[in-house]
Amino acid sequence: MARPKHKLTNAELKAKPPGKYSDGGGVWFHKRPDGGAQWFLRYTSFGRRHEMGLGAYPSVTLKTARQEAEKWQAVVREGKDAIRERERQRREAVRNLHILSDIALDAFESRKAELKGDGKAGRWFSPLQLHVLPKLGKTPVSQIDQRDIRDTLAPIWHDKADTARKAMNRLSIVMRHAAALGLDVDLQATEKAKALLGKQRHKPRHIPSLSWQDTPAFYQSLDGGTVTELALRLLILTAVRSYPLRNLHLDQIDGDTWTIPAEAMKGRKGATEDFRVPLSQEAQRVVAEASKFAREGFLFPGVRKGVISDMTMGKFMDRRGMVERPHGFRSSFRDWVAETTNTPHDVAETALGHTVGGAVERSYRRTDFLEQRRVLAKRWAEVLYRTNSQKVAVLRP
Q1: Residue partners of 343: CB distance under 8 A and separation at least 6
Q2: Would you call 286 exposed, middle or buried from its count of C-beta atoms within 10 A (0-12, 13-18, 19+)?
Q3: Is 0.70 surpassed by the pTM of this model?
Q4: Domains along the chain?
Q5: At residue 375, does pLDDT exceed 90?
């Protein structure tokens, strides 16, 4: 004979004395001595009796308690443990509520150690921050599909192709990070989005650079003795990238050689060794002049703290009415090498900090051509501060 259901009524619930009262069908009402009360479901699963809370009374009404009980009784009839199933559903719901901005920040934090300067410059995160998170940042990562990604990156897919490519790459990493966290995401969403967006038709724009013939006049105009001007002079003399120069520490300089830590070098994929830069006498004079501004050992300190920013030298050139960028002086140097010297290709490329040759070739060739590059640096310095700079003797190998 089936057990009767719905024994209790709303009218009698408040009047009940402390104790446990069955409503039938496994639904129970527990009135505590302190006046509080709650509902629970009593059921048997795998030969064991369980009591599953259904909520506090009166927040959970008699009708709601009966509906909840029926839902979980159906789960038990399927051969599942109701309590465990509810916990599983709660965990899944929590996982699926993780929004993209939170996952992106977590992915960024987990990768800082492998990024240059622990990612402090923000270059890894900025494509996401500027072009993805404003539109998708508050979207649960589990709900993001290829159409969302397509619509987000479509405005820059062709006009800012390199930036869009970086944003897509970073987003793919974030999605894989989400999957590693156990979240339910579509790992193919970025590849599908690429298929929807189509092949990029953007032609890369080269960074504007000053011709090597005009570089000496600009170099000689940097005579104000400011931190920014000294930084630009050393940047031009050494043809290095902005990051290692801005973060140059006096401990890295030993006489006529500046040693850049491996982690500060870009463009040397797989490199684990530091990179030596020869310093001409002119470069050493610049270092000596800049040393009076040094703070905490850094040769080019910022106005308030840290070192000068990535934009400092660029803004200086802007004020001069120039469209050329500081990074372009690497091209100026490389063009001078190609047009006026007989420098071997490997030496010229190594002077720019580029990786030359394949992995096998590099494993046998241990030289960094330092002495040949030292001659090249001396000649380049002579070009820069010589009045008639275009009359340059050809450098023989």
Answers
A1: 337, 372, 376, 395, 397
A2: buried
A3: no
A4: 10-95 (3.30.160.390), 100-197 (1.10.150), 215-385 (1.10.443.10)
A5: yes
